[in-house]
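As a next step, we paired sequence with structure tokens, yielding the entry below.
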Amino acid sequence: MLILLSLWLVHLRLSEVWFGLDEGQQGYPGSPAHLRRIEQIKATVGAESLEELIANLHDEEAYHYPGVESPIDTPQDDFERFLSSRRTARLQEVLAGLPEGEQAQTVQRLVRETFEVQQWSVESTIRSHVEPKTKDAPQAKPGKKGKDISALGTKMAMGAALWLAAQFQGVESVLERVQRIEAYAAEVDDRLAKDNRCSVSLRWAIRMLAFPDNACKLNLLVQAVRCDPRTTPAQLESLATRLRQLPTKRLVLVPWNARITAFDKPHVMEGVPVDRSKGAVEVDVYEWGERLRDESFQRRVLGDVKRLAAAVAGKSS
């Protein structure tokens, strides 16, 4: 009898967690707790000013399930993860309504500041591991007040900034920043490899968690090339030829205040269609497929797309 009672209590607790009966839990997809969280995200994002939207891009909570792409981190999912945030979509809408000069200045500042915060985050992480007892802790950087800035938050903010640069600025803005990110990542990795105070696990964590993955960089560059009005039909055809070997999936992007987005998994798992009533844009997302672990192949593809982006920007390859 005691065993049956214990099993019943366990079942009851699991029901609370999975089906959202417990206010403190996320709930199972489709549960009231899940759906309430999605509505809460919409309400929060809708009330933020331009400066708050920019500062809160670093808030990692916006990139967690539900209401975003996946409850589980999957390899090279950075691109879809930052797009899944309704804050990214809201910021894009606000920027689209700004005068051209103000828009350009704001996007440039966003790209610069997100990279600076990312560098600060990386260096702070390294310092905390090699000098754990230091008293002069780094001062807080821009972000959601009262919350630490995480590796995920800084990486997502930087990805969102580059997505917005692809939409509103020339391809050179994205290309230059991707190259700077890669140069900084290589410099950090080389520095950690030579420092015997840094563990292998720290080096791996910085490499994998602090910088946008290759699929993210590829899709950002592709979007920048396609959005740039200087790109010629021949260059678009060349791009399509180079990407033809890669698996793709079609992603439907809708405004931040749409009732249901492609990333609202609780709804999607129930078979509820995406809300296109406020407009929709379809984006091809390129993946590595069987080449997911083939770093040399990914570098070759990225190199080809970078050279094409440089040609569009009028720079020598």
Summary: The two ends are 76 Å apart (CA to CA).
